[in-house]
Amino acid sequence: MASALPRVVVLAGGISHERDVSLRSGRQVADALKGHGVDVELVDPDSTLIDRLRTDRPDVIWPALHGASGEDGALRGLLEFLGVPFVGARADAARLAWHKPTAKTLAERAGVATPRSITLPRDAFRELGADAVFSAITDELAPPVVVKPAQGGSAQGVTIVEDAAGLPRAMVDAYTYGDVALVEQRITGTEIAVGVIDTGDGAVALPAVEIQPRSGVYSFEARYNAGETRFFTPARIADDVAQRAAEAAVAVHEALGLRHLSRVDLIVDGAGTPWFLEANVLPGLTETSLLPQALEAAGHDLGWVYTALAEAAVRDTQA
């Protein structure tokens, strides 16, 4: 059956480090919507976008822009200002999730475990002395630790540090993607991702996807190159652990004020405790991405779900 929505514009591409991934996500979304009978246009945003939206207003925008251009809240704020319905988190919630230290704090307040960490701006090393800062980090967070940019996605700028000697280089790599870095105690266990969708009846967790990269690290390459990672859907975890992970994912989704869809990344330790790592307001939607795998494992047709989310976006704007 054709959708009641006359036209959806999928935004994909942009100028972030994740442009190529965004284009792949956008094409997958557009194809799924078209397969469900929706009139879809795939647009690579540029300086003409705002004028275009003013003169040729679509019924709903689907932002498939990964990285800052689609996930830091700026574009979403403009769409809200223009009154154009769009799928996904509103600007304020996107800003909270995009900043990983803030998201960790809100997750912890919601009762979800998250690894011990410290957030450090680049200037801290100059103002306080690099040797003193590195000594303080390693005294309180004994390696292994994970160093990552405080903002960003797709594991870009992320390093697993096995000993103190590797910390300075890891910090430099993280600062390549921003002026603030997060150093987090590494939790050993089963890495999973739990998608959350809400088409209007409340947030529902999808089956957890277990991630097993062949290299041992779920890097940018492992995420987007077929064959580099094995996925198990549902994850090979006990039912009670899967339930706790689902509850944690929904709790984070709601604590951050997200809507329509998200993906919450967790790691389950040997005791069965799910630890929150980060939340994604725009999960990857490529042919190798986790949310589509979870949707299919739950028995959902991608075209139907993506259309339902677009319809929910229109209702939310009209409410």
UniProtKB/TrEMBL annotation:
Mg(2+) 1 binds at D265, E278. The active site is at E18, S154, S289. One of its GO terms (molecular function) is metal ion binding. This is D-alanine--D-alanine ligase. Residues 104-311 form the ATP-grasp domain. Mg(2+) 2 binds at E278, N280. InterPro entries: ATP-grasp, ATP_grasp_subdomain_1, D_ala_D_ala, Dala_Dala_lig_C, Dala_Dala_lig_N, PreATP-grasp_dom_sf. Its EC number is 6.3.2.4. Its cofactor is Mg(2+); Mn(2+). Keywords: ATP-binding, Cell shape, Cell wall biogenesis/degradation, Cytoplasm, Ligase, Magnesium, Manganese, Metal-binding, Nucleotide-binding, Peptidoglycan synthesis. It catalyses: 2 D-alanine + ATP = D-alanyl-D-alanine + ADP + phosphate + H(+). Belongs to the D-alanine--D-alanine ligase family. Cell wall formation. SUPFAM superfamilies: Glutathione synthetase ATP-binding domain-like, PreATP-grasp domain. It comes from Schumannella soli. Binds 2 magnesium or manganese ions per subunit. It is found in: Cytoplasm. It is an enzyme of class 6 (ligase). NCBIfam families: PRK01372.1. Gene3D superfamilies: 3.40.50.20, ATP-grasp fold, A domain (3.30.1490.20), ATP-grasp fold, B domain (3.30.470.20). Pfam families: Dala_Dala_lig_C, Dala_Dala_lig_N. The gene is ddl.
